Amino acid sequence: MSLRILAIDDSLTMREMLRQTLTEAGFDVVLAEDGIDGLTQLPDVAPDLILTDLNMPNMDGFGLIEAVRAGDVAPRVPILVLTTESAATLKERARQAGATGWITKPFDEHSLVSTIRRVAAV
Amino acid sequence: MRSSGFATDPDIRELVAFRTAGQDFCIDILSVREIRGWSRPALLPHAPSYVQGVINLRGAVVPILDLAGRLGLEPIEDKDRNVIIVAAIQNRTVGLLVEAVTDILGVPASGIQPTPDLASEATRSMLRGVVVQDSRLIRLLDVAQLLPPADDAAA
Amino acid sequence: MAGAIDLKDIFFVEAEELLSALEEGLRAIQTGAQEADTVNAVFRAVHSIKGGAGAFDLKPLVNFAHRFETVLDALRGGQLQPEPALLGALLHASDHLADMIGASRNGSETDPELDERVILALEAQAGMGGHKEEEAFVFEPLALDGPFGMDLSALPLASLQRKVVLTFRPHSGAFASGHDPAFLLRDLCGTDEVEIELDQTALPAPGGFDPGQSYLGWTITLQTERSDRELLAVFDFIEGNCDLHLEAEMETPPDPDGTLPEPNRAPSPVVTASAPVTPPPKPVAAPKAPDAPAATSPQPAASASAASTGPRPTIRVDIDRVDRLVDILGELVIHQAMLTEAIEQSPGFGSVEVDRSLDQLRQLSRQIQESVMAIRAQPVKPLFDRMHRIVREASMAAGKSARLVTEGENTEVDKTIIERLADPLTHMIRNSVDHGLEKPARRDEIGKPTEGVVKLSAAHRSGRIVITVQDDGGGIDRDKVRQIAIEKGLVPPNAELSPQEIDALLFLPGFSTATEVSALSGRGVGMDVVRSEIAGLGGRVGIASVRGQGTTLTISLPLTLAVLDGMVFEAAGQTLVLPVSTIIETLRPDIMMRHTLGRTDSVLDVRGRCLPLIDVGAALGFRRTLKPGEGEIVVVVERGDDGAIALMVDGIRDQRQVVIKGLEANYGQIPGIAAATVLGDGSVALIVDPSDLEAIGPNPPRPNVFLAAE
């Protein structure tokens, strides 16, 4: 069974890129447009991993991570954040919110998959 | 695969020959979409006299030109007995009203001769050359020239 | 992957949406919006563009967007105030960003010097001048900064195999953050020779085990060529959620005090009782759906608000598919008309069942038509949004101060019409700024606010779309217009012209009132082009002006380009169609109502109102005079602006939906004719454009035949 990933990004381009890249890498991908959308889909998707953008409308990545960690649907699912910068402050905030790790944009398939492998059973 | 003998020879051009105003003409078969009988067109306001109007061709509105009139010859009278050659000219579909389609010719490129000086200047500009077949002189039309530029459209 | 959508295309489509969100947000801030949401949305738009541009390696775009974003970030953080000058520079940068994306879409680039000038101007305005080269934004490939704030670059690189001993003990917080020590150990080991020792001394007594807690630690001894830096990088994600200690022998000296700073976490509970060996807890696996029924979703409030505020689900459909549907629908309407005609001539006609079925068929096909048109309909907002920039640029170029106000942006119009409106609307807006508005000094003199207002509005009105462009400028100087028209030979010097007729002169080819040719109107496009473009959409343009108060241009358009309600009538032996939407009334006038003006012009007195009377057959050149029994019916139709004209026809056949077929593709535009249609018997009927009919007059202009499809 392939790993099921919930990928959350408000950018259509990014979503489509994640969908194509992750599907080609053999993952099962479900997309969401923002934190609220991701949370709404979470129970049905039951992902093995969440990939999320940080800067999003309605509910941003930090809010999403905190909500997932505080909830009881999948509080311990690995969550990787997608950041444009490798700014240490953002990473630290994400970590404190409960993120498992991060992926720096732009990413290629290799860096994406190898980072996923670090935190989930592939 | 087409079985017709000359179609496989790239040097041979297939031409649709027809008569109108007592003269023989032909056009390249590649520009012919279909040949159909006369149906009464809707008149177009303020159109040149050789524009007969427009007809419905499977949902498309297609103008009909009286070819003889367009070439400055005697316009066709008894339209009910005549035929319309539907031709694609550049990006447009146009119906050419002629007396009758007579033949389909296979002519080698060498069989097309320059237009002799017997035609009027107006007609000559619309011809590409002539083909002599069974001692008949058949004029090869340059269809692109049939659609006039704006300035003589209302002539 | 079959049917993979080109990501770059998606990026450009999205970038367009982001650009308009950016511009809209900036404008909102300009008009006083203070909400953090607005500033955030603006920031996010630039941020997303940067992200996408980075993915496609569009370096100039990334650099520009990054510096732009930095300024917006300062605005967001309150270090900058949204002062007018800063907003001007932000809008200018936003316009330039749009240009850069446009260029990139076409595979080219904007002038790098210009890029730099624009962004420098913004940075200067933001007080961020002196942009340093080394600050230029570069994407890092993958984060490699070391955990625990250690300066890893200070650590020498290992080149030879050596022995490294790591002790690692995750905190309970590590599991809460989704970490699984198993993966860390796997990554740490790599292909090296490894010895791992499990420290389970902290395991609680049976019964006291809490899977959420961390009881285990490991000591890993590696024979490795990897540097300390590489080894520690494995743990960068878990930094702060574990105790980690690295001790290396030989080449690489250990870090100064040998331990890593203790993170600010409560220490794991330590239980010293011995316990049976258990595998490391694996609390990472997410509980699957059965454990978490949707009803116990942890964020009911969040879900509810998503349902109420989130966008309705939509699908993206290839426009070709919709167009195909429209074509088929056209055929359906024609065949329905054919069927109706056939039934009316058959013996079964008149039976109630047949009648009712036909009626239902008609209604259904109309419903399908409305539904299909609704698919194609889009709000005019994106089109209107683009006009703000036009006003900005036009007013800057003309040395004027102007602001665009929009109204009715959610009015929906057929997609094709929207696309084809962009050019004429752009020109009309430019024209309003250029010729309509007075210069600020002049406005000040006459007591108007120095900033002129151009109002752009859209509305549905009796089955048509009405778009108006209204300026609060000086209005049309009719004496001047008349003078110019005479000088240019457009009207005879002695012509008696009504104010409306003078205004209409502006639409004549070759007319331009600008005494000084401005940079903008010197583009060789006149209002005549606007008029013919609108006419090509089956619409008409009207103009109204009040001296000193401004000018209003009105475009009236059909809702769709595919089908219209038509009245089928006869004139001079021809079957023709009039759009029902233009018809005010039909009547059978008596001789007393008709009056002749001059030699040929006739007017019809309809309840005291004199309307120009036009014989359709003659206006279209099908006849010169009326025979007995002809022209006995009059149809009163609307003219572009408020007025009406009376059309003489020979007979009215019926009213029905007709499918609009363009004449341009195979023939050309004909004055007085909007398009053609196919009737139930398969014959063609022309659709008359009544407003144009009057303009033809006794000397019809030459039709521009066979030219449209170049």
UniProtKB/TrEMBL annotation, chain A:
Sorted UniProt keywords: Phosphoprotein
Residue list for modification 4-aspartylphosphate: 53
A family per Pfam: Response_reg
InterPro entries xrefs: Bact_response_regulator (IPR050595), CheY-like_superfamily (IPR011006), Sig_transdc_resp-reg_receiver (IPR001789)
The organism's place on the tree of life at top rank: Bacteria
Domain (Response regulatory) ranges: 4-120
Xref: PANTHER family: CHEMOTAXIS TWO-COMPONENT RESPONSE REGULATOR, STRESS RESPONSE REGULATOR PROTEIN 1
Protein's name according to its UniProt entry: Response regulator
Protein species of origin: Pseudotabrizicola sediminis
Lineage: Bacteria, Pseudomonadati, Pseudomonadota, Alphaproteobacteria, Rhodobacterales
